[in-house]
User: What shape does this take?
Amino acid sequence: MGPRKTDASSRQPAGGSTGTKNKVRKVSILHRVEKALREAGVGPGQRLLAAVSGGVDSMVLLDALACLRERLGVRLHVAHVHHGLRGRAADGDAALVVAEAARLGLGVSIARLHPGGRGPGESVQVWARAARYRHLDAIAERVGASHIAVAHTQDDQAETVLLNLLRGTGPRGLAGIPPTRRRILRPLLQVPRAEVEAYATSRQVAFRLDASNTSDVYRRNRVRHHLLPLLAKEYNPRIVESLAGLAGLMREDDSALAEAADRFLGESARTMDGAVVLEVTALAAAPPAVARRAVHAAFRQASQMAHSLTRRHLEALRGLLSREGAVRLPGGFVGQRAGGKIRIGRPGAESPTPGPDAPAKIPVRPGVWTAWPPLACRIRVRPLPAGRVPLDAPTRWQALLSPRLLLERLNLRAWRAGDRFRPLGMQGQKKLQDFFVDAKVPRGQRGRIPLLTAGDRIASVLGHRIAEEFRWGGRGAACLLEVEYSGEQGQLKTDN
Assistant: This one.
């Protein structure tokens, strides 16, 4: 791939020579992109989806990935999301992406959004971001891509940290944009935007300019064009690098605290009456940072909501360590202390009947058999290379799922009131209680059936049905879920 002229509809950034300095920058970017991909586990034979908007960052990422594809042994596919917001300008972005994909000999998928579907009161930016990632995920599933590469840079990281700081945040907000999240990769996250633009100049990379990125209507643009330059000029010329470095340190700290909170919940929390119950003594003895995360995680576990607790909620719940009382929480949930326990759940919610000695949560490690005592069975989840479909064994229930299941934190738990999931083949979600009724599962047996959860989502009601969002696409690598049982309680259905 040699340098080339850009077409009339594209522009290059101003400045930058074509001498040795740019060559060093080009190699540096390629080295950092390759390192990021290898650290994320991208390797020979895998398909990588490149999310390309047509702007300079994503077009440079596409050029770098094209340069590295043979060395890494990966197959590339290009995805472009047309948001339907900028008329002919957006059509021009899509046309450029299609043309570049064709020039590089790559397949391309275009997703078109419909702004009319935006919810009441939902901002355009929030709607566009959620819809964009949803469509990228769907394209990745369709083409069999193991990862999605997006083009956030070090400057995007600095802007995010500063925006979170201005809004008011803790370590998690200061951690900014993660280098990886599920199947999303950000290979340019350590690369300053100036280096990206220099690369585009030296390689004569074609790209488009989005006029909305210059508008001061958006807070991020005001931070980008006014606040960060002011901080760089008056206080710290390396402010972008400093903020990005802070994000890395905060990410490490937040990860350690999150792991400590998970251990605390595994040792001290119990699921009871459709709620999560915490021991006051254990919660008071935990470091405040761990206790806050544990309470937050308990709320999410009880509510199955993505909604976050505010600082006011967390402080009110902390007050229950010294007195009895109740705290109202989002979604109609409450945190209530009675005696030495704090219960987080719905007031008076109908509770499922747990199995005998049903644990609150059991971590599942890929490739390792995990016992589930209430049903006298054990479960294993492991990756399966492309082309290897297992033969059914008479003593096992098996299911093939999407390999992205392994990107989540996996656990086994019993069901609780309010649980919902989307059964394979269904268009919408269904209450787990209604699913059990339709499946004719006796009420007394429902608490024995293990649920495999991926993050905060139900991936499978083991022995009954997997979730639609974790279905295997029918080709490429897969994830094999196996249940091996013994005894009369282990007669599992196989209707997935």
Q: What stands out?
A: The CA atoms of residues 171 and 250 lie 5 Å apart. Residues 1-27, 391-395, 487-496 have pLDDT under 50 and may be disordered. Residues 273-345 form a domain with the Uridine Diphospho-n-acetylenolpyruvylglucosamine Reductase; domain 3 fold (CATH 3.30.465.60). The radius of gyration is 25 Å.
